[in-house]
Amino acid sequence: DSGVTQTPKHLITATGQRVTLRCSPRSGDLSVYWYQQSLDQGLQFLIQYYNGEERAKGNILERFSAQQFPDLHSELNLSSLELGDSALYFCASSVRDINSPLHFGNGTRLTVT
Amino acid sequence: ILNVEQSPQSLHVQEGDSTNFTCSFPSSNFYALHWYRWETAKSPEALFVMTLNGDEKKKGRISATLNTKEGYSYLYIKGSQPEDSATYLCAFISNFGNEKLTFGTGTRLTIIP
User: Fold this and answer.
1) Looking at residues B79-86, what average pLDDT do you find?
2) What was the pLDDT predicted at B15?
3) 3 state SS of A85
4) In this structure, are residues A72 and A25 in contact, taking their beta carbons and an 8 Å threshold?
5) Cβ atoms of residues A34 and A50 within 8 Å
6) How confident is the model at residue A26 (pLDDT cuts 50, 70, 90)?
7) pLDDT in tens, B21-33
8) Which residue in chain A is spatially nearest to B35 when comparing CA positions?
9) How far apart are CA A52 and CA A54, in angstroms?
10) CB-CB under 8 Å, B49 with A42
11) What is the model's pLDDT at position B76?
C-alpha cells in the first residue's frame, strides 16, 4: 500500500459529461502529480502541484483542470468528455520535489461511452 | 519534446538467469532519473532515484547504473525470480527549471519458471 488514495476506482460516463477524480496524497507528502495512461501509451504527465500551488504542467487539455486544496488533497476535473479521454488516471505524491520518489495511487479507470 | 527510450520493449528470461535493460535520455539537460517497477493490476512502485553521473544503486537483486554524459541508465536483475515479472519504467527529469518527469514506455519483463 503506497498510502496514496484515489477515488473512485472506476467511472463510466457519457460523452459531453464532466467528472472529478480525487486524490489524497501520502501523509506528509506535499507534491501531487497527475498522469494519464491511455491504451498502448505510456504514462503521460498532466500536471503537478506542490503545497497548493501549480508547479509544472504537461500536455493537459484545456478541458481538464486540477487543483490542490489546503489539506493537500487534489482533484482533477475533466469536462466535455470525449471517447478518447477513456484512460487510467494516476495520482502520485512525493515528499517534496523530483529528487524524492513518487508514490502512486491505484488509479481511476475512466470509461467514456 | 524530451525523448526517453527504453529497450528492449519486452524480454523473456529463464528463472535464475540475470538480465539487464536500458533507459536512454537526453544527455545535455540531465537533472535526475527515476526507476519504477509496475506489476500487472498494481500501481508503479519506486525503485531508485539517481542524480549523479556514475551513480550505482542497489536494492536486493536489482541494481542500476547511471551515465549522464552519454545519456543512459542500465537496470540489472541478478538471478531472476518469477516475482520479478513486471514492467520496468524509467523517468527522466531535465534541468529546464520545471519538475516534469517524463516516463519511458517501459520494458516488460517476463520470467519463465
Assistant:
1) 96
2) 97
3) helix
4) yes
5) no
6) very high
7) 999 999 888 899 9
8) A101
9) 7
10) no
11) 98
Residue-by-residue DSSP string for chain B: ----EEE-SEEEEETT--EEEEEE--STTEEEEEEEEE-TTS--EEEEEE-STT-EEEETTEEEEEETTTTEEEEEESS--GGG-EEEEEEEEESSSS-PEEE---EEEEEE-
Which residue in the set A41, A101, A103 is minimally distant from B49, CB to CB? A101
* Disruptive mutation site among A99, A103, A106 for chain B (greatest number of B CBs within 10 Å): A99
Q: How far apart are CA B35 and CA A98, in angstroms?
A: 12
Please indicate whether, in this complex, the C-beta atoms of A106 and B102 are within 8 angstroms of each other: no
| Distance between B91 CA and the closest CA of chain A, angstroms | 10
Determine the residue of chain B that is closest to A40 in CA distance.
B105
Query: What are the phi and psi torsion angles at B61 (to 5°)?
Result: -90, 0
Q: Which range among A50-59, A99-108, B55-64, B95-104 shows the weakest confidence by mean pLDDT?
A: B95-104
Question: How many CA atoms, within 13 angstroms, populate the side-chain half-sphere of residue A82?
Answer: 6
With beta carbons under 8 A apart, name residues in chain A contacting B45: 2, 104
Mutation target for B interface from A34, A49, A55, A104: give the one with most B CBs within 10 A. A104
pLDDT of residue B98 exceeding 90: no
Distance CA B11, CA A101 (A): 25
Q: Is the pLDDT of residue B1 over 70?
A: no
List C-alpha distances in Å: A45 to A66, B24, B74: 13, 18, 23
